[in-house]
Amino acid sequence: VSQQLEEEVRRGFAGLEDPLAGLLDMLESSSDWKGKGHSLGYYISTELQLWMKEHPAAQQSGIKLKKLQARVLGILAQCPANLLDPLISIYQLHTADRNYLLEHVSHLYHKGNYKEATMLSVKLKLQPDQDVEKMCTPLLLQDKTNLVEDYVGEYPELQSKLLQILDTWCEPGFNIRDVTRQYQGLSRYKPDKFNRKTLSKLVFRLLDRFNVDPALCPNVVNQRHLRTLNYLFYKRFVEKSMTQENWTDHVQSTVGENRWLQEHLVQLLVRYCDVSTAARWAQRCGLPREVLPCGVADELQTLQVQERVEDAAKADSYEESKKKDYYQLPIPRANIHFLQTWEETLQCWEKVLRPGQVVGIDMEWKPSFGMIGKPRVSLLQIALKDEVFLLDLPQLLEQAETEGEKEKLPHFIQTLYSDAAITKLGYGMSGDLNSLAATWSALKDTDKQARAVVDLLKVDKQVDVLSPEQSYEDRGFRQPEKGLSLLVQHVLGKPLDKTEQLSNWEKRPLREEQILYAASDAYCLLEIYERLCKDPASFGLSSDLTESLVGKPSIKPRAKKQLNKQEVPSPSGQQCKGSVKETLCAPAPISPKEFSVVCDNMLQGLGRYLRCLGVDVRMLENEDDHRKAAEIARQEGRVILTSGLPYQTLQSQVAEGRCFSVNCSEKAKEQALQVLKHFNVRVSLADIFSRCQ
């Protein structure tokens, strides 16, 4: 049929005196081509485009072509995107008078056809003669950011101009309503998508995509740094999971010489600490008294710079308590080698590249705190049974560049990963290798060539453990352990001290605490592996541990596929075991009256829906911290319903099966069905609206 249609169409073209006018007659008298998809009009247009290339004599020129171009512009305003290219090609619109085309696009724009005007401008490459702010603003209000990106895609000057405009809209004190007010009657207007937060994300995406210098957008960058400052204050003074040294490093790195950020830093210090601390930082930043709050200015005048003796005493006692509570490196400090030159690394290569060797590998990089680009590895740790090598990658990279020997270090790393006779241990190894590839392009295929690698993150998911909340509360830890630290606690008895995790790993020299942390992170992998190999059964692993580690199915029953990658709990919250097949036993059915939950603050719609069905529901308020859900769950015996990243934190704070992650992209009804099915809750007619709404 397709071939017959093609032959018929081509005979039709040959029989027409003017095929170009004939196509326009057909399109103007029909509406079939206006819909989406490949219509008959689209088929005929694309066939004519091919036919014209084979019959150039049929092409028109001069006055006749101009008249045809005037007619086709009227059709372009209504046609779907797939017809634009064929019609522009057939009627040679790139040769039409530019002012005439700009006038036509302007007419479309003023009629409110912003999308059509922009698409036509992109196809005809009219952007250099247009106002980028005027063309892009209504599209941003309609959440058509992809079209905006296409509009400036091939024009670096327009990219910079657009980014500067967006940055101006994010300026403190700028009222975004001044922009939106001009477009009150705009169809498909999405005001909720047009705010500083959304604009900030868009700016960073465009900076990354077009590789533009972030200095072009000082307002957005400053706001991002301010959010980083707030996050650092939360980690240090609320969560208390960051050491003073790490916090100080990151605050200095974030604030830099920026006077606006320095003033905000002082305000945050007054709120979280005291005027004395704020005054010390004000002095460090060289802020004049007139920009400081009154109390800080007075304190600055009488400030004594000496460190208090009590602080040193507290630090000593803190170090002693750490030794008692956390995993300690079992090798002497003299066996940790910090390597900065190629000559120093030779001893490392000789010992590591031996058949039968087992090595623990880890990497560290400076936290990005949401800034642009992939992290670059600052430190590569390689642990052997009796010693640990810490490779200063930035220094080694610089030396390789200077001496023209770029291939030496990548060659060693690739040899190490590809050698099947050397067992490499890691935790979350794919993420480490991605960061390594971003640091050194020569290493981009290392993950594909890797052999004999054991990712203990995969093993971690198979290890049977006691309830995490019990283990950390007994020890009196401030925060529940997670990730590698939790695995170390389960297998070796004490968790890792992760206070150095958020260090500035690019700053040299590294502090002693950073060196010990980095060495421990790599060395503990050797101890975990050794313990699991000795007694895999006591951790619920296959007796043939090697099979488990290389990714082959182990004899322990696991579900092939579960919603949200969670396992179905029994009513007691314990895992169902003993089935040889990969199936899990369902919990006994319960009524909504017997089911009590606490909903995280992003799931209030789900909470209201479940309450309508008779479920006992408590909901967090918008301002509540996610961890409050765990407190309520433990005190009142409730199941936590949450979503996204908070799930990882919350599930470790309650018994197994007492925290469930809901798909946030679904509507409340679908979420409720998912929860009811998972916990086998049977709703009867009498349950509906049985609770006060």
Automatic annotation (TrEMBL):
<feature type="domain" description="3'-5' exonuclease">
    <location>
        <begin position="336"/>
        <end position="537"/>
    </location>
</feature>
<dbReference type="Pfam" id="PF01927">
    <property type="entry name" value="Mut7-C"/>
</dbReference>
<dbReference type="InterPro" id="IPR012337">
    <property type="entry name" value="RNaseH-like_sf"/>
</dbReference>
<dbReference type="InterPro" id="IPR036397">
    <property type="entry name" value="RNaseH_sf"/>
</dbReference>
<dbReference type="GO" id="GO:0006139">
    <property type="term" value="P:nucleobase-containing compound metabolic process"/>
</dbReference>
<keyword id="KW-0269">Exonuclease</keyword>
<protein>
    <submittedName>
        <fullName>MUT7 Exonuclease</fullName>
    </submittedName>
</protein>
<keyword id="KW-0378">Hydrolase</keyword>
<dbReference type="GO" id="GO:0008408">
    <property type="term" value="F:3'-5' exonuclease activity"/>
</dbReference>
<dbReference type="InterPro" id="IPR002562">
    <property type="entry name" value="3'-5'_exonuclease_dom"/>
</dbReference>
<feature type="region of interest" description="Disordered">
    <location>
        <begin position="558"/>
        <end position="577"/>
    </location>
</feature>
<dbReference type="InterPro" id="IPR052408">
    <property type="entry name" value="Exonuclease_MUT-7-like"/>
</dbReference>
<feature type="compositionally biased region" description="Polar residues">
    <location>
        <begin position="565"/>
        <end position="577"/>
    </location>
</feature>
<keyword id="KW-0540">Nuclease</keyword>
<dbReference type="GO" id="GO:0003676">
    <property type="term" value="F:nucleic acid binding"/>
</dbReference>
<dbReference type="InterPro" id="IPR037432">
    <property type="entry name" value="Mut-7_DEDDy_dom"/>
</dbReference>
<dbReference type="Pfam" id="PF01612">
    <property type="entry name" value="DNA_pol_A_exo1"/>
</dbReference>
<dbReference type="InterPro" id="IPR002782">
    <property type="entry name" value="Mut7-C_RNAse_dom"/>
</dbReference>
